[in-house]
Design a protein that fits this description.
single chain, alpha/beta, Rossmann fold, L-2-Hydroxyisocaproate Dehydrogenase, Chain A, domain 2, six-stranded parallel sheet, three-stranded antiparallel sheet, 14 strands, 18% strand, binds nicotinamide-adenine-dinucleotide, binds (2S)-2-hydroxybutanedioic acid
């Protein structure tokens, strides 16, 4: 393998999502069969033993791409020289909770980790999965002044995948035929899955599912509350699908987005896009240039219906920002 190794840290490596995520990264699926992967596993001290067990299993897979595994309970050590930081480690919600009920417990984790990234890594891209992921990403970037804010994103790819799957099932077509399904705003029950601009093969989604009533009704609620439905059914939050979405997120940022297409991710708002105030971590339709740069797709025509939904999710993100104001440094 001739390429330079890529270093990836997964926080919460012994958790549910970590257990699904690490193997797929190690397998070469994300960075390619010719790129060695050095994994760094960050865990809390009581879970280090479990992380060691996961590392044994990673070795036992015999992936030719996996060149090194480090395990640490110290963020600065785990983040040393990483190129990708997948920030998963944090508390999941339980039944009856909203994701932002986790802010007070999980927010401080991203202060510590933002500061540690600031000291330990420079050529790094950060993906926040731990909930509430938009606001946790905001906290991390505010505490990491040396890394450009545009290197931080939060994951709404799971919501995009869920929305596409629901539409494909209703329209009785393959999920691969659904394109340009943007999630706007917060990874929460106020998110807006934009069915108005998505397509199903050659058709609009509205035509493919037989009208708008289902999209505004059952579909909207199902996407917004899918995480809660999984917790109610499994007794634990989504894990394999979350890990899969994280893989999709990284791949979509690494690959040039085909012309006319977009994907969803929460990125820092520039204040000039769709009336969203500057600085919020807001999920937009995104196009990657494939060279580490990306853009928020401009010119998406928003209906009055979409505008109302986007305003609602914006309001929630502004409220979350107020709750964590004292954790924001820059
Ligand atoms: P889990 O409880 O199974 O695992 C979390 C792990 O993180 C634990 O092993 C814990 O020891 C570790 N951890 C906690 N604090 C840490 C810290 N400061 N540093 C390092 N490790 C730490 O939880 P999970 O199911 O893997 O979920 C993790 C997070 O991801 C939760 O906040 C969950 O809500 C969120 N999530 C987000 C999405 C999304 O779409 N954005 C989807 C699913 C889950
Ligand atoms: C999800 O969407 O499945 C995750 O954010 C976990 C949760 O709490 O819903």
């Amino acid at each position: 393998m001739s390429k330079k190794p890529v270093r990836v840290v997964v926080t919460g490596a012994a958790g549910q999502i970590g257990y699904s995520l690490l193997f797929r990264i190690a397998s070469g699926e994300v960075f390619g069969a010719d790129t060695p992967v050095e994994l760094s596993l960050l865990e809390l001290p009581p879970a280090i033993k479990a992380a060691e067990g996961t590392a044994m299993e990673l070795e036992d897979c015999g992936f030719p791409t996996l060149s090194k595994i480090n395990i640490s309970d110290t963020a600065e050590t785990a983040f040393e020289g990483v190129n990708w930081a997948l920030l998963v480690g944090s508390k999941p919600r339980g039944p009856g909770m909203e994701r932002n009920d986790l802010i007070r417990d999980n927010g401080p984790i991203f202060v510590t980790q933002g500061k540690a990234l600031n000291r330990a890594a420079s050529d790094v891209r950060i993906v926040v999965v731990g909930n509430p992921c938009n606001t946790n990403a905001l906290i991390a970037l505010h505490n990491c002044r040396e890394v450009p804010a545009t290197r931080f994103s939060a994951m709404t790819m799971l919501d995009e995948n869920r929305a596409k799957a629901l539409i494909a099932k209703k329209a009785e077509i393959g999920v691969g035929a659904i394109r340009n399904l943007a999630i706007w705003g917060n990874h929460s029950s106020t998110m807006y899955p934009d069915f108005e601009h998505a397509t199903a093969g050659e058709k609009s989604v509205e035509a493919a599912v037989g009208g708008r009533a289902w999209l505004e009704g059952d579909f909207m609620v199902a996407v917004q509350k899918r995480g809660a439905a999984i917790i109610a059914a499994r007794g634990k939050s989504s894990a394999a699908s979350a890990a899969s979405a994280c893989i999709d997120h990284v791949k979509r940022f690494m690959t040039k987005t085909p012309s006319g297409e977009w994907f969803s991710a929460a990125v820092p708002s520039d204040g000039n896009s769709y009336g969203v105030p500057a600085g919020l971590m807001f999920s937009f339709p995104i196009r990657s240039h494939g060279d580490g740069k990306y853009e928020v797709v401009q010119g998406v025509n928003l209906s009055a219906y979409a505008r109302k939904k986007i305003d609602e999710t914006t309001k929630e993100l502004l409220e979350e920002r107020e709750v964590v104001r004292q954790l924001l440094l820059r």
